[in-house]
Design brief:
Blueprint: H1 5-34, H2 66-102, H3 104-119, H4 122-131, H5 138-164, H6 168-175, H7 180-216, H8 227-236, H9 242-272
Length: 273
């Protein structure tokens, strides 16, 4: 099958969807760690300055370099999103797989927990929690997102494991005397990693948008280095410096869009395999 031109074409399309996210991560990370630009370096005389050769994206409030702010905020948002998505994947996947295999009361309670978690908007939960914290940080934001991020993974894993539990190789493992736990670990989880991994990009994009929204309403990290804080600056100076809002909107769309595109690429790759 790997020599089939149609399969190779599908794989190329899948990789072309994943590539922008990889390029975004590599470029922003290298620029952030190599460049001497810093979002904490202010120049009051350049406040709201328009783009020029020295500052390609212009300046924001208090003369902050928007290129430095965007690059540092993007890296931190992507790191937070990756950690939350990884936690959700590690927790939700085995939980959902066990629910789909064991069935019965355990499956019912697991799916009810997913319903409960997903019925309450994560953003409202974050508003309630972070409003009660004296100084919100990315740790607080990440913990709030972890409370709800596992549920979609568990639901997908449960649905896939129910299908896999009726497959011939799982029935053969049971006939050989393998216990349910051994079947889940050795046969079910490895075969549902592909379908579940599609959720990683969607979850990461949701975290980026959520952190951006929290920063926009003033509940972002105290250092002000977030895409939401950039959008807040842009709205406050919409008439005086429209380029700030434009930079913020493009940055948010670029980051979230590439993550969603990568998720679609993973889905296509899984379908090919």
């Amino acid at each position: 099958m790997s020599g089939d031109p149609r399969v190779r074409a599908r794989r190329r399309r899948a990789l072309s969807a994943i590539a922008p996210a990889v390029v975004l991560v590599v470029v922003t990370a290298l620029f952030t760690f190599i460049s001497e630009r810093s979002p904490s370096r202010l120049a009051l005389e350049l406040s709201w300055a328009e783009p020029d050769p020295a500052r390609p994206l212009g300046s924001g409030d208090a003369g902050v370099d928007l290129l430095a702010l965007v690059s540092h905020a993007t890296v931190r948002a992507l790191l937070l999103a990756a950690l939350v998505a990884l936690f959700a994947f590690v927790v939700g996947t085995p939980l959902g797989a066990a629910a789909g295999i064991f069935r019965g009361r355990f499956e019912r309670w697991t799916l009810r927990a997913c319903d409960l978690v997903q019925s309450f908007p994560t953003f409202l939960l974050a508003l309630a929690v972070l409003s009660a914290v004296r100084t919100p940080s990315r740790l607080h934001i990440g913990l709030v997102f972890c409370v709800t991020a596992w549920a979609p993974f568990a639901r997908v894993a449960a649905a896939q494991s129910r299908i896999l539990s009726e497959s011939q190789f799982v029935e053969a493992a049971r006939a050989l005397g393998h216990g349910r736990a051994a079947v889940v670990i050795a046969h079910v989880i490895p075969n549902l990693l592909g379908p579940v991994s599609v959720q990683i990009g969607t979850s990461a994009a949701g975290v980026v948008l959520g952190e951006t929204a929290l920063g926009f309403v003033g509940l972002g990290p105290p250092d002000g280095v977030s895409l939401g804080s950039l959008l807040e600056q842009g709205t406050l100076a919409m008439l005086r410096a429209p380029h700030v809002l434009a930079v913020g909107v493009v940055a948010v769309m670029l980051v979230s869009g590439t993550l969603q595109l990568a998720s679609e690429g993973v889905r296509r790759w899984v379908q090919v395999e």
